[in-house]
Design goal:
The protein is α/β, with parallel strands linked by helices. It has six helices and seven strands. The termini are close together.
């Protein structure tokens, strides 16, 4: 049986709440303890680095993908099980997504939002059916969830949009939801 792979999108910074780092570390540990493989952006900074280090420490396989222009900026983590350097951000996102079975989005910035909206758009277009989970640590994603509701309320997407992602309060809930989705 093939190992399930979880793609984690998250910040290359730590944010302003210590809970963000705690959840990132917990996510990496959870991925390993479930026997899953981590797929992520190959950085060794911010929440990205925390997820990867925790996953590695707990024994998970790690698959990192980073574009050449970010190798120094995000401190490319070369000690991963698999480390792929791409030419562009678009290629990075495609390789990450094609190598996962589910997506988890921890707190992050514009890059994490870009990755999330791309997979939501692909789902809306019928290009995949992979589960997407937003880990809403201390309400971080509340404004985004309100915006997504606004988009559907104003007629720019159907209510089906809300079925393409699941918001969960923390890593424990994400772990349980992933287990159910991948079984």
């Amino acid at each position: 049986m093939r190992t399930a792979s979880i793609c984690v999108y998250c910040g290359s910074r730590t944010g302003d709440d210590p809970a963000f780092m705690e959840e990132a570390t917990a996510m990496g540990t959870a991925i390993a303890s479930e026997g899953w493989r981590l797929v992520y952006g190959a950085g060794d900074v911010g929440l990205m680095g925390a997820v990867a280090r925790a996953a590695q420490t707990a024994g998970a396989e790690t698959f990192g993908v980073i574009p050449q222009h970010l190798v120094n900026w995000e401190v490319g983590k070369t000690d991963l099980t698999s480390y792929v350097v791409t030419e562009t951000m678009h290629e990075r996102k495609k390789v990450m997504f094609m190598n996962c079975d589910a997506v988890v989005v921890l707190p992050g910035g514009a890059g994490s939002l870009d990755e999330l909206f791309e997979v939501l758009t692909w789902r809306q277009l019928g290009l995949h059916e992979k589960p997407v989970f937003l880990v809403n640590t201390n309400g971080y994603w509340d404004p985004l969830l309100a915006l997504l509701q606004h988009v559907t309320d104003r007629g720019f997407a159907g209510d089906s949009l809300h079925g393409y992602y699941t918001a969960v309060p923390d890593t424990g809930a994400a772990r349980n939801a992933l287990r159910a989705a991948l079984s």
